[in-house]
What does this fold into?
Amino acid sequence: MLGALSRDVPLTPSADDARQWAQDELAKAIYNNEPTLLERLLDWLGSLWRELMSWNQSVGPVVLPLVVLAVVLLLVGAGLLIGGPVRRRRLRRQGASAVVLDGDERTAKALRAAAEAAAGAEDFSLAVLERFRAIVRSLDERVVLEDRPGRTAHEAATEAGHGLPDCAADLLTVARTFDAVCYGDLHAERGDYDRVVAVDEQVAAARPVRLAGIDAEQPTDVEPATGPEPAPAAAQHHEAGQR
It folds into this structure.
């Protein structure tokens, strides 16, 4: 009987226990009157809309469309600013390569001059891009590559390596540097530019073993870009006849 009565009588908590129980109870969601994040966002948008409407009424009906247009332009600008690097990183992860000469009609000489000017201004990223374009343009001019739009750096290096096998590995290396600069993965320095210049000079001095549009089995005998031009066949026959 006494045990039953003692169980029915509630215990008297201490002051600390009572304070803790009260805090736990008040922390429950039913006592939380703070607005949620969504509610705060909707409230802010509502107040912004009311502000715009008040401006529209006080200044005239022209203001609201202009404000809306400005907000849209800001959102588009932010999307381009954020989306550009994200897209480049996504393409880089997919192993994409950048186009080298997309509509650029400059000669190899002009591209080299542009590269030297950029290097003189210590803009080595631009200098690397222009010098690699000069390499590809020089290969077009020598018919080691067939001139076609849309060719990427990796494609140009791979195709040029068939005609200049001794330069194949170095061409691929500088093509990767070109892509890294294009996609923002590399801020080029003097050493990067010097390596591209060295490959350009190596390619210019190399004798191609095949030309664009010629089968691999068909031999070619082409002088290096810096070497003298071969004498015309008619002149050679004329000199042989005189001897």
Notes: Residues 63-93 form the longest helix (31 residues). DSSP finds ten helices and no strands in the chain.
